[in-house]
Amino acid sequence: MATEIKVEIIQRQTVKPSSPTPHHLRNYKLSILDQMALQTYIPILLFYPNAADATRNNVMATSERCQHLMQSLAKTLTHFYPLAGRIKGDAVIECNDDGAEFVESRVKCSLSEIFEHPDAEMLRRFLPVEPESREAGTGTLLLVQVNLFECGGMAIGFSISHKFGDATTLSTFINCWTAAAHVQSNMLMLPKFGAASLFSPLNFSNSEPLPSVEVDKEKFITRRFVFEASKIAALQSKVTSTVVPKPTRVEAASALIWKCKIEASSRSSSNTLGTSLIRPSVFSHSVNVRKMAVPPLPENLVGNLVDFSTTNYSHSGENSTVIDLKGLVAKIRGGLEEKKERYAAVVVIDSNEAWQNMKWYINLMKNDDIDKFICSSWCRFPFYEADFGWGKPSWVSYVAVAINNVTVLMDKRDDNGIEAWVTLSQENMALFESNKELLEYASLNPRVTN
């Protein structure tokens, strides 16, 4: 599909804030967590059906919708003014109103063709920039691409610099933009700034550079797995134990994915006698520091308020290849509880400690003697509520950044099912996607239902 569908760029424009940023706000401080964030873009796609199909009296023409988006984006950027600036050095965004990039494209197909079996590589073409682009740390911080389909449908692709914020920040930005699009200024979820006062930046000019994570889209492959609500419920029931009597959807799904990744890795690492070798592994789960802190930090606090809970698995059965799924759920829950305890006892994070922890974590990820698996949950974010004036999206899709062994979980439109975007090496993916236990609960890239 990726080579068959034509995406034609119509125009590129720069959108600046509708009001200039005041001089006293020109320098926005990054926090230590922003400084340590990957130099990538966070990507997401929101798909909208033909507005004429919506039960609305005020249907807008395509040209009107694009103009409406640009005008409301300009208003939004007055509140999210750092996104219209550029990173200066390693600790400051210069809020110079250089603006965000707004791209319009025409797609030579209908939405139904995309929805039939969404191609992970194809979806990248609906974004204004490659997620792995190093421009995320030196150039435009926000890029938007509006893709217009032959059927009258639309897909809006967002790329926001990870150096500015996390998925929660992206959600807050989209909420603010949709409110501005409805001229509901009194309903705007305005961003809160000031994370740098809690997580002070460090001066890296004379220190060693941050260790990098391998990003290479040529080496890795991404697949979409869909867990229907009934299957998730059955999986939760299966992994219930006295240790975790009420596993969450995310705990159940991520534990199964971890188990199947371990099994795929063991089969690809089999020894010369053909015996599977179950290597020790580390599972990392991203956590929202805003919710972990006591008292909780505001959900609309902008920045990278993310940490990782980590848990280890070492296989002890010499003559058995059975991996206890309930045990993995318990390990995931234990890692999350440990992280909660840490943030409950800390008001302000020591930046040097955070830096040392990050170096330890990155070096752990580079250890070739263990398998590493990372999971990030975007569930419960209100992306499906994003109405710019022509209805809510019929599908919301993550677009994978090419980092090995990363899984991102997203809600299905029904809020109960889960879509998992899994990135692995090509060898391990071939083994992973054929795992019978996985396919008992998840479907490999089924048609998008809406």
UniProtKB/TrEMBL annotation:
InterPro entries: CAT-like_dom_sf. Signal peptide: none annotated. Keywords: Acyltransferase, Transferase. GO terms for molecular function: acyltransferase activity. The keyword Ubl conjugation does not apply. PANTHER family: F21J9.9, HXXXD-TYPE ACYL-TRANSFERASE FAMILY PROTEIN. Belongs to the plant acyltransferase family. This is HXXXD-type acyl-transferase family protein.
